[in-house]
Amino acid sequence: MRAVQTHGTPMHSQPMKTLASLKTLLSRCNLPTLSLIAFLQRAPVVQTVVTLEDFVVESPIGTLLKSAAAVFASLGAINSMAGASTTLTVSGTGGTINSAGATLTVGTAAQIAFSIPGSSGWSDPAGSWTATGVPAGMTVDGSTATGKISGTPTTATTATATLVVHSVSGSYQQSYSYPFTVTGSAAGAPTITTQPVSQTVSVGSSVTFSVVATGTPTPTYQWRKDSTNIAGETAASLALSNVQTTAAGTYTVVVTNTAGSVTSSGAVLTVNPAAAGAPSTPPSSGAFASSPTEVTVTWQPPVTGTATGYKLERAADSGFTNALTTFNLGASTSYVDTTAAAGTTYFYRLSAVNASGASAPTAAMQVQTPASVGGGASHFVNIATRAFSGAGNNVTIGGFVVTGSTPKRVLIRGVGPSLSSQGLSSAEVLADPTIEVHQGSPVIASNDNWGDNANAAEITSVAAQIGATALASGDTKSAALLITLSPGVYSFIVSGKGGTSGIVLLEVYDADTANVGSSFVNIATRADSTAGNGVTIGGFVVSGSAPKNVLIRAVGPTLTTEGIGQTEVLTNPVIELHQGSAVIATNDNWGDNANAAQIMTTGARIGATPFANTDTNSAALLLKLQPGVCSFIASGKGSTSGIVLVEVYDAD
């Protein structure tokens, strides 16, 4: 960068010659010669001539000398500033920019600022800038003491701009040479190389339109439906989920850069309505990580429409636009996705299908798989029991044991009104459940209506993360507690407020499955099992990567030794154990098992209350189960009713 002074050096005062010397000098010089010398000399000579004004004023040449003095005085004033510092301060963005010059790129916006520190000693500060020779596509803003050159270069070039800084009064100025190097291709208007494609889908499906375009600079996008901009859709792809018939139309995208714009061809979206007879509502479902590499999805059939199967979809985002994986399932009510990766967030959704079509999918279910569960060890992560809860001895009582060395976060729920969406009538369900949690005799926590908890929002969030089925939107009466418990034995009572009765779903969840310092080792529920919808239905999840020995018991007659009357107990319980829709084991009388002796010794080893000597009718199963979801039904043989204790023990 080179600074150029626009004028000579400033004037400096000269010693005054004596009047006698001047007279001698004038006597030796004719006036024309002196006049020429005055014009050729710099300011000191002019100053000398001005001093002699009294001596030459009467001569015609005197007038000429006065004029010369005025001109040189003016030039001297300008020069006094033109000799200032050539320091130039440069800063900017959008390229390599410094005082030596600027290296920019075609299509990349840049801004360069110039200033002179302290106005370079000018008595009149810098006020404006001018510039010539700047690269194409860039403009100059020189209206302030800081000059700016900004814009987006459009052509590759090597150029040297001339910058001139002016003082506020216009009396002073300084010139600089500033080099530019602009690299890259010239700007080019966008060109679409791949057009969006028309699609035909059914109600509830997902659709993605995509476009591929080139241009310099990189273009931007704006999607439109029927020529109207779609707010927020400014990417190269447009993703639509759970589309309805109102989404049908023509979709285009406008691709734009500084060199121009182009509109894609129209992609027509046709949305076929759900076929007659297709399930009109999705199933009621939940998903949770049952191990670092397995996600379990469970569901209930949809309330309306007949489902013969289910479609499960998995994606990395809640909009289901990335790497969609589809599992076509049979008629079971649970599925274990064994292709999950540890420490990963997934989103699942489920649709009910039959020969006529599919329902809309469920809302996205977010699942975070844990990074590890401790060397592959398996453990219980939740148990649920659906049973009839009556008054007095017929209330539903649960219990569980937390073992290990660290506290465990536990979600306990007593679900009543939401069961109406799972095939039960509102008259059958427990309308207003309450929960009491005990450690020994003391009540350590209780809840009537789950929304009254100070952490109600957290309860909703955690339930979704661990796969608990969401409560119905109008269900404010079900009860829930999210608490942290130290290792130990706990029991809880779920009953109807005001002594009311009805079917209730009792659930206990491990709410921090990544914490392997503690786990559930046994879980139990005492309930009133009645015929029909009132049978006791339970479920549990074994998490981990290794099989687990599990002892399952349905205790009836032995309960008479615990203060329950002979006529109150379920006299002959029967157990059916399911994985999905398949029955994998059954038992009527525990002694009929080939491993009956092992059932006795295992029960004694793990602390299960022994069967009474006369109790040959209670049921039990001791078997090794792979990690996953299991469900069971404890009912009375011959459709009998009574109080039953259902127990699930970690038998390892």
Tally of DSSP helical segments: 7
Q: Biggest sheet, in brief?
A: 16 strands, antiparallel
Task: Indicate the low-confidence ranges by residue numbers.
Answer: 4-85
Mean pLDDT: 79
Outline of the structure:
With 652 residues, the protein is mainly beta. 12% of the residues lie in helices and 44% in strands. It has seven helices and 44 strands.
Fold and architecture overview:
This protein is mainly β and 652 residues long. The protein folds into 5 domains: 81 residues, no CATH class; 95 residues, Immunoglobulins (Immunoglobulin-like); 85 residues, Immunoglobulin-like; 85 residues, Immunoglobulins (Immunoglobulin-like, Sandwich), CATH 2.60.40; 272 residues, no CATH class. 12% of the residues lie in helices and 44% in strands. The strands form 8 sheets. It has a 16-stranded antiparallel sheet that branches. Strands 1, 3, 4, 6, 9 and 10 form a 6-stranded mixed sheet that branches. Strands 12, 15, 16, 18, 19 and 20 form a 6-stranded mixed sheet that branches. About 13% of the residues have low confidence.
List keywords for this structure.
652 residues; mainly beta; Immunoglobulin-like; 5 domains; 16-stranded antiparallel β-sheet; six-stranded mixed β-sheet; elongated
What is the strand and helix layout of this fold?
Elements: E1 2-4, H1 19-28, H2 31-40, H3 43-51, H4 53-56, H5 60-82, E2 89-93, E3 96-98, E4 101-105, E5 110-115, E6 126-132, E7 138-141, E8 147-151, E9 157-167, E10 173-183, E11 188-194, E12 199-202, E13 207-210, E14 212-216, E15 220-225, E16 228-229, E17 237-240, E18 249-257, E19 260-263, E20 267-272, E21 284-291, E22 294-300, E23 309-315, E24 325-329, E25 334-337, E26 345-354, E27 357-358, E28 365-368, E29 379-389, E30 396-404, E31 408-415, E32 433-438, E33 443-447, H6 456-466, E34 479-485, E35 488-496, E36 502-510, E37 518-529, E38 536-543, E39 548-555, E40 573-579, E41 582-587, H7 596-606, E42 619-625, E43 628-636, E44 642-650
Parallel strand pairs: 4-10, 12-20
Antiparallel strand pairs: 1-10, 2-5, 3-4, 5-8, 6-9, 7-8, 9-10, 11-14, 13-17, 15-16, 15-18, 18-19, 18-20, 21-22, 22-25, 23-24, 23-26, 26-27, 26-28, 29-36, 29-37, 29-38, 30-35, 30-37, 31-34, 31-36, 32-33, 32-35, 37-44, 38-43, 39-42, 39-44, 40-41, 40-43
